[in-house]
Amino acid sequence: MIRLWWPTATLLLWAFFALFGGLMGLAPNHIDLPKILLDPGADAWLGYDDLGRPLWDRLVAGAQTSFVVAVVVVFLSSIIGTVIGAVSAYKGGWLDHLIVRIIDIFLAFPGILLAIALAGLLGPGINNVIIALSVVGWVGFARLARAQVLTIKHREHIQAAHSLGTRPARIIIYHILPLIMAPLIVEATFAVAGAVISEAGLSFLGLGVQPPEASWGSMIRDGARYLLVAPHMVLVPGVMLMLVVLAVNLLGDQLRDRLDVHGRQRDK
Prior knowledge:
single chain; 268 residues; mainly alpha; MetI-like fold; elongated
């Protein structure tokens, strides 16, 4: 079994830098021309970039960007997708058919390409990135919520509540959603990793946060031109991005195994 102490520590550090990085007195946009492309040393752990800005400070600022985007996008996507999927499955009929067709249309396009198109139409900026990724991200939650509701909406306690005249909204909120939260939570963990990668990709293409604000994707883009003379400009944000995404995926796998009651029963 893979020990998960380091993924947990990685995500805690990511969240700490995102939440309290502004209180650390860092200067991610401070330009010091004599230190352009300076290698990591005692005065700067991770070196400097092509404008003489400290990479450590910009790495922490990039952590704030990725954390905000990931949390807000997953929150909006999960709320919108879960509501649409649950209502679609519970109501059925023409509404369910319509929503299924809409989901199929969204799934026909690669998610990142659709996000790039939306970000290009809306223009660069972190708010537009959140909107673009949320428009793309709700589909996975809607499909999962719909599948889960279809399997449980005919259970006895739900049929009993319906027979007693309970409103559909109350049935969905109090009788259905608690039963489908486990797979939705697992889906949310993997959606966090996807949002971090997507935000970095959009920023790499110039559609995310704009200079001088820092993002791991824009840091990789800026360092690509100096890869041979200053590889630390790419390695620092690239390794951090890889560690965060890998940590989220590993913890998501572990959470899925813990919540998979039927799988544990089969193993016994």
